[in-house]
């Protein structure tokens, strides 16, 4: 679609304002009604280049074609005026944008979630692209040719994006920029970390991870810096999207955008058992042989005192029921340790499956939005209470933790607050099992 200049551009902009309602950064948000009874459609995600070429689409082809013209027109309007829209609300749907030249990303959703949720998803999609094609490579490719076809460069990697999108729908660790480690006895985690302590000769070694069934058992890092949760999410998503990476010894380049968006680090990936994988991250592209030799030593240490078998036994015990709290009327909760930047939650149990789970997650997202002032309100809140015909939900933020909780709608507010205190007390006793405390450094 070709966009004219002058009055035509302003006319379309005014039309969008009148018919859709645009929310921008800095504006005071207004409460939206969250539908809690209907079945939601799958969110649709798209990536365009600044020349309007489609790079990726999670939706059906006919949906793509009907949206491309509108999206390209809106991007052209606001990019030309250096005005970046956050989202457009049209009917029950929200269209959220993320402009990261030379790429433009947008998402269409009718879930009724806060704007920040979709932008977080788009941020992760952009980071996943950068994990494959660095920012430097992107810039050079589009400098040489403004209509560069990025889809060809990403061909064969679409499954990484599809897997990321699927994981982000219901995994609250993406929204809270946190991790959910494998739950286990702290002594077992310490034993695993001791076996993974690297020798001093590996000067370019950045991170050492032990992963079991897609969850981190322990993580060792250099004393001088930590790893950003989003980079860890990209690594875990890459492993989840490609089972071959965890079925045979692999040496791959990967970009950690929060660490260095312009270059690659190198990951040595070695399966130890069917469910347990060692990952060594190094800045040295020639470190494969040295890391391979050290891996044999690590595996021998892990096997020597039955650490490996004990970790295997811990995998099916990771999930726990909300009934473990022994609190009548408690339906579900998500607990985040703000100090360790990690979360835990009981399993999704009936009635929270299917549409009911989507509904509760959306309510949690609104609580998170209010606690962190993501929608532009004057200041964050410390306590938020929402009640529906199905449940009452409480969001509570303190210095050490955040709590998102669903209880029976028949409980009084005083009983809800009492339940929140009971969950916090329960988690204070369980933190050593569910979180990685005092991660080892080298």
TrEMBL record:
Residue ranges occupied by any FUZ/MON1/HPS1 third Longin domain in the UniProt entry: 329-431
Pfam families: Fuz_longin_1, Fuz_longin_2, Fuz_longin_3
Subcellular location per the Swiss-Prot or TrEMBL entry: Endosome, Multivesicular body membrane; Prevacuolar compartment membrane; Vacuole membrane
Gene Ontology biological-process entries: autophagy; protein targeting to vacuole; vesicle-mediated transport
Keywords, in A-Z order: Autophagy, Endosome, Membrane, Protein transport, Transport, Vacuole
Occurrences of domain FUZ/MON1/HPS1 second Longin (ranges): 204-299
Listed InterPro entries: FUZ/MON1/HPS1_longin_1 (IPR043972), FUZ/MON1/HPS1_longin_2 (IPR043971), FUZ/MON1/HPS1_longin_3 (IPR043970), Mon1 (IPR004353)
Protein name: Vacuolar fusion protein MON1
Residue ranges occupied by any FUZ/MON1/HPS1 first Longin domain in the UniProt entry: 44-164
Family to which the UniProt record says this protein belongs: Belongs to the MON1/SAND family.
Membrane topology label: Peripheral membrane protein
CC terms in the record's Gene Ontology section: fungal-type vacuole membrane; Mon1-Ccz1 complex; multivesicular body membrane
Disulfide bond listed as a keyword: no
Record carries keyword Protein transport: yes
Biological role stated in the UniProt entry: Required for multiple vacuole delivery pathways including the cytoplasm to vacuole transport (Cvt), autophagy, pexophagy and endocytosis.
Domain of life according to the entry: Eukaryota
């Amino acid at each position: 679609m070709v966009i004219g200049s002058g009055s035509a551009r302003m006319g379309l902009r005014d039309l969008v304002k009148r018919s859709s309602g645009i929310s921008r950064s800095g504006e005071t948000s207004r409460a939206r009604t969250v539908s809690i009874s209907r079945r939601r459609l799958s969110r649709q995600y798209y990536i365009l280049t600044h020349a309007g070429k489609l790079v990726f689409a999670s939706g059906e082809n006919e949906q793509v074609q009907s949206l491309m013209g509108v999206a390209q027109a809106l991007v052209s309007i606001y990019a030309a005026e250096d005005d970046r829209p956050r989202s457009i609300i049209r009917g029950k749907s929200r269209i959220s944008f993320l402009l990261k030249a030379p790429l433009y990303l947008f998402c269409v959703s009718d879930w009724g979630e806060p704007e920040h949720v979709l932008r977080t998803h788009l941020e992760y999609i952009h980071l996943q692209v950068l994990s494959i094609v660095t920012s430097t490579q992107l810039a050079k490719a589009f400098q040489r040719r403004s209509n560069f076809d990025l889809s060809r460069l990403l061909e064969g990697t679409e499954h990484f994006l599809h897997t990321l999108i699927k994981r982000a729908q219901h995994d609250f660790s993406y929204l809270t920029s946190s991790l959910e480690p494998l739950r286990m006895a702290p002594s077992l985690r310490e034993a695993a970390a001791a076996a993974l302590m690297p020798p001093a000769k590996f000067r370019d070694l950045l991170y050492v991870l032990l992963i079991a069934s897609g969850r981190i058992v322990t993580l060792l890092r250099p004393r001088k810096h930590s790893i950003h949760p989003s980079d860890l999410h990209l690594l875990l998503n890459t492993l989840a999207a490609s089972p071959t990476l965890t079925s045979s010894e692999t040496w791959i380049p990967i970009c950690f955008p929060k660490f260095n968006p312009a270059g690659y680090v190198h990951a040595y990936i070695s399966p130890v058992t069917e469910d347990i994988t060692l990952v060594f991250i190094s800045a040295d592209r020639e470190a494969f042989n040295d890391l391979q030799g050290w891996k044999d030593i690590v595996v021998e240490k892990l096997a020597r005192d039955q650490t490996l078998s004990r970790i295997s036994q811990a995998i099916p015990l990771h999930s726990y029921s909300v009934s473990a709290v022994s609190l009548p009327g408690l339906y579900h909760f998500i607990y985040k340790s703000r100090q360790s930047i990690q979360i835990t939650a009981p399993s999704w149990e009936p009635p929270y499956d299917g549409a009911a789970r989507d509904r509760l997650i959306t309510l949690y997202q609104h609580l998170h939005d209010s606690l962190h002032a993501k929608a532009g309100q004057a200041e964050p809140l410390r306590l938020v209470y929402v009640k529906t015909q199905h449940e009452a939900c409480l969001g509570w933020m303190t210095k050490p933790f955040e709590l998102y909780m669903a209880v029976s709608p028949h409980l009084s507010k005083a009983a809800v607050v009492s339940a929140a205190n009971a969950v916090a007390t329960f988690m204070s006793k369980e933190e050593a099992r569910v979180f990685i405390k005092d991660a080892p450094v080298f």
